[in-house]
Amino acid sequence: MSTTPAGCGLAQPGLVLRDNLADRIAEAGREGWLGEIEGLKVSLAAAKDKLTQMDAHSKSSAGDLPGDAFVR
Question: For the chain, what are the domain ranges?
Fold first, then answer.
């Protein structure tokens, strides 16, 4: 079961994807789908890496533009 609050799906789709993959890995484990588990673990690792990259990028670029950059 996902731990992401229902209202966060639109704001943080990467977190929802990560949680859904974790849920699917748990389901595959219960059902004994060993090949599925391996594929989902690869996808989960890639999703976590991408979220880390996005987080690092958002922190490093937060101050790139002044607040009035688009004011004419």
Answer: 11-53
